[in-house]
Amino acid sequence: MSTVTPGEGCTAHRPPVAGKLDPETRLQVVTDHYQNPRHFGALPEATVVLPGGNPGCGDVVVIYLRAEGERLVDVKYEGQGCTVSQAAASLLLEHLHATGLDPDAVLAMDYRFMEELLGNDLVRARPRCATLALGTLKSAIQAWRRKLRAGTHQG
Amino acid sequence: MARPAEEAVIAQKGYAVPEALVSTEWVAQHLEDPSVRVVESDEDVLLYDMGHIPGAVKIDWHTDLQDPVVRDYIDPQRFAALASSRGISRDTTVVFYGDKNNWWACYAFWAFKLFGHPDCRIMDGGRKKWEAEGRPMTRDVPSYAPASYPVPRREDAPIRAFRQDVEAHVRAGRPLVDVRSPQEYRGELLHMPDYPQEGALRGGHIPGARNVPWVMAIQEDGTFKPADALRAIYQEQAGLSPQDDIVAYCRIGERSAHTWFVLTYLLGYPRVRNYDGSWTEWGNLVRAPIER
Fold first, then answer.
1. What is the pTM of this model?
2. Do the chains contact at B190 and A55, CB–CB below 8 Å?
3. Could you report the per-residue pLDDT of B201-243, keeping only the tens digit for each?
4. Where are the beta strands (DSSP E) in chain B?
5. For residue A62, what is the nearest residue in chain B, using CA coordinates?
6. Is B192 an 8 Å CB contact of chain A?
């Protein structure tokens, strides 16, 4: 059912990437996403709510995912923590919404995609912070799919 | 150059080594002092880029102080190169400050002490106090001529504990202080089902360790509590006495560097070591004893 082949996820939809910008502009974009997060907030009728993070360090992201049948209709997040962890969540969700909420594309993303989104140096300096939102989002999609399969079996 | 009133505040706090701390005002008065280098060390890797104390350089705990391959700190050659690149010579007074109540600043301070850098200080109150006082911040990254820094000896033993040291410590029943949150200490999951517990396979604490969360040492404005209050916490409540041989740990040794600083410099305990392997090592060790 997926139209995304492995490794193609990053290039099939060309996102508005910050990673390729000059350092000053990139800093502005990342800071703006930190200060004015996109798709931020709880989804009251979420199909899946999944928290992820490292409470010891204080970086936390909660993914809210709402689906209708096999279609993803909305994804939002809440969180707190360092600039990288929070800006990464906002940039990732902006990309997801801009490219049509494709769950298979998300499952094909890896840290290289986060490097495109944020820049190599930031991801290498704080790999756990930079991939927190992506890891949590993937887990949320997998939890939704498990729920979907369980529902099918029951039905 | 220091304003007596500001430094008197620190002097009145009754610390064992008061010169290990400087006030924000002292830093403001020394921004142009070539014998002083101000170093920002943060958890949040972008804070420095968003604005820092004029003239301050950045040292990152992850990318600058740690070996990129082996889980260890950089070797003496790389340390000398790092110091040199920041315009730090062996006789430079290095003042660390940062986010999270100087948590990472203390970690960088501790790492500098592994290489025996003589004059290290912490700016009391850290980045939070500097900002709260409305002091100047800049995005200009300063450039200093490379300083001459002789390749030092790295001496881990006095202030760094390894796994074997901790095993011996536990067997001998000597005191350990776990500076993580009570939930981490008790090995409770913190409602993060899809995240490994503190990057370790098991939750809990090293047998016999007392729990004194690092943040207990801090006041509302980000400065350290006075010595009397610290003694009440560490000595009277936790039962750690100055003559004890103490090992402090947390998750990767960052928060415990903060407590190491408090015990060593503010209370004058001469034998405190930081176990940087901490819970990410102990909580993954096969057959390591754990308490909950």
1. 0.88
2. yes
3. 888 999 999 999 999 999 999 999 999 999 999 999 999 999 9
4. 21-22, 36-40, 57-58, 93-97, 120-123, 176-178, 210-211, 246-249, 272-274
5. B192
6. yes
